[in-house]
Amino acid sequence: MESGSGRVALGMPATGNPDNTVPRPGAGLLDRFGRQATDLRISLTDKCNLRCTYCMPAEGLSWLAKNQVLTAAEITRLVRIGVSRLGVRELRLTGGEPLVRADLVEIISAIRSEHPGLPVSMTTNAVGLAKKAAALKIAGLTRINVSLDSLHPGTFAQLTRRPFLDQVLAGIDAALATGLAPVKVNAVLMRGVNDAEAPDLLEWALSRQIELRFIEQMPLDADHGWTRDGMVTAAQTKALLSTRFELAPDPRRRDGAPAERFEVRRPGDAGLLGTVGIIASVTEPFCADCRRTRITAEGKVMSCLFSREETDLLGLLRATADDAEVADRWRAAMWSKPKAHGMDHTGLDSADYVQPDRSMSAIGG
Ligand SMILES: Nc1nc2c(ncn2[C@@H]2O[C@H](COP(=O)(O)OP(=O)(O)OP(=O)(O)O)[C@@H](O)[C@H]2O)c(=O)[nH]1
Ligand SMILES: C[S@@+](CC[C@H](N)C(=O)[O-])C[C@H]1O[C@@H](n2cnc3c(N)ncnc32)[C@H](O)[C@@H]1O
Ligand code: SF4
Ligand code: SF4
C-alpha cells in the first residue's frame, strides 16, 4: 500500500503507525514523516585549526587516521550517487575545517566536472582562505559561509582559543573579491563574551554586503558546557540588535532554511540596509521542514545533526558494493531519521534530550 511520496506501508493503512513502513526502492531520501532530504552536507575532515569553546575542547580531539577518512574519489562517488539516484540538489562541504584538507581544490574540481549545475557551497572558519579563495572559485565552488564571532582580537582569541582574527578577515575579503557570493557570516553569541558586540557585527556586515546570521548555541560542544540559561536566544539577539536597528520580517520564502531573515533599517529611516538572519535551532526549531542529510568524514550517514544512530557507507564503498547497494543503505538510514533534535519531539532543553557522543566538529556542522 502506498502512502503518498514514496512510502510503502507494511500491512496497515497508510494512516497507521509510520514506523511500520519502509522506503520505496528508487525513491529519494525520504523519511517516515514525509520529509525529503535534498541538501547533502559532507564533512571533509574532523580536524580543525581553531578550538571554538562551543564546539571543541582546548586540547582538540583524537583525530581520525588518514585511512579512516573518505578519500577524494569516495567523496566524489557519494555525491554522484546522491545526485543521480537520490535526488540531492545541493551540496555543502564542511567539517571540522574543510580548508585543512590538502586536496580540497581537487575534490571541488572533480565534483564540478561531473555536476556542472550543482550548487556547491562550503562552511569554513576562513583561516588560510585568503590564499585559496581564487583557486576554490576556479575549481567550481559556488559560495561560502564563514564563521566569525568577534571583530576584536582578544574576544576572537577567547572564543576560538587561537589568535587568527586577521587571517579570517583577510579570508572574507578574498571571498568577496573572488565572487564567492553571497558571502554569509555565522556568529554564535555567547553571553558575557561577544553578545554585546552583536550590533557592531551587523554594522560591519551591512557595510560589506555580507549576510550575517546569529546562531543560537546548541548542546553539541565536546566540553558539555551548554546550559539553556547560558545561551543567547533568538529573542535576546533581536533585542540586542533593536538597540541600533529596526528589524522587519523578510518577505522572501524561507524555503526550509535554518535562518529566519529580517530586513534591517535604521529607526525612522525607510532605506533598506540589508538583511540579517537568526538561526534559532533551540527556541524556534525548524525540524518539520528539514531537508538535510549528512555524511561524516569517516563516511557515516547521520540523518539528523543530533542522531545517535549512524550508518556506515565507507565499509560498503571499500567492499566494492555497487552504487545501487550504497544508495539503498543511505535511503534506509534516512528513512529512520528522527522527527526532531534526534528524538520524537523538539526540545534541546528537555529532560530526555541526550547529547550525541560527537561534537559539532566531528559531525559536520
Ligand atoms: N538544528 C540544526 N541546525 C543546523 C543544521 N545545519 C546547520 N545548522 C546551524 O546553522 C548554522 C549555519 O549553517 P551553515 O553551514 O552556515 O549553513 P546554512 O545556514 O544552514 O545554509 P545556507 O543559508 O544555505 O548557507 C550552523 O552553524 C548550525 O548552527 C541542521 O541541520 N539542524
Ligand atoms: C562545525 S563548524 C564546521 C565548519 C567550519 N569549521 C566553521 O567553523 O565554519 C560549522 C558551523 O557550526 C557552528 N557551530 C559549532 N558548534 C556549534 C554549537 N554548539 N552550536 C551552534 N553552532 C555551532 C559554527 O559556528 C559553524 O558556523
Ligand atoms: S566551529 Fe568550526 S572552526 Fe570552530 S572549532 Fe568547530 S570546526 Fe573548528
Ligand atoms: S535538528 Fe535534525 S531534524 Fe532538526 S533541522 Fe537539524 S538535522 Fe533537521
From TrEMBL:
[4Fe-4S] cluster 1 binds at C48, C52, C55. Pathway: Cofactor biosynthesis; molybdopterin biosynthesis. CDD domains: Radical_SAM, Twitch_MoaA. S-adenosyl-L-methionine binds at Y54, G96, S147, M218. Pfam families: Mob_synth_C (PF06463), Radical_SAM (PF04055). The keyword Lyase applies. Binds 2 [4Fe-4S] clusters. Binds 1 [4Fe-4S] cluster coordinated with 3 cysteines and an exchangeable S-adenosyl-L-methionine and 1 [4Fe-4S] cluster coordinated with 3 cysteines and the GTP-derived substrate. Residues 1-26 are annotated as: Disordered. GTP binds at R41, R92, T123, K184, R292, T293, R294. It catalyses: GTP + AH2 + S-adenosyl-L-methionine = (8S)-3',8-cyclo-7,8-dihydroguanosine 5'-triphosphate + 5'-deoxyadenosine + L-methionine + A + H(+). Its cofactor is [4Fe-4S] cluster. [4Fe-4S] cluster 2 binds at C287, C290, C304. Its EC number is 4.1.99.22. InterPro entries: Aldolase_TIM, Elp3/MiaA/NifB-like_rSAM, MoaA, MoaA-like, MoaA_NifB_PqqE_Fe-S-bd_CS, MoaA_twitch, MoCo_biosynth_MoaA/MoaC, rSAM. Residues 32-258 form the Radical SAM core domain. The keyword 4Fe-4S applies. It is an enzyme of class 4 (lyase). Keywords: 4Fe-4S, GTP-binding, Iron, Iron-sulfur, Lyase, Metal-binding, Molybdenum cofactor biosynthesis, Nucleotide-binding, S-adenosyl-L-methionine. Belongs to the radical SAM superfamily. MoaA family. Monomer and homodimer. NCBIfam families: moaA (TIGR02666). This is GTP 3',8-cyclase. It comes from Arthrobacter russicus.
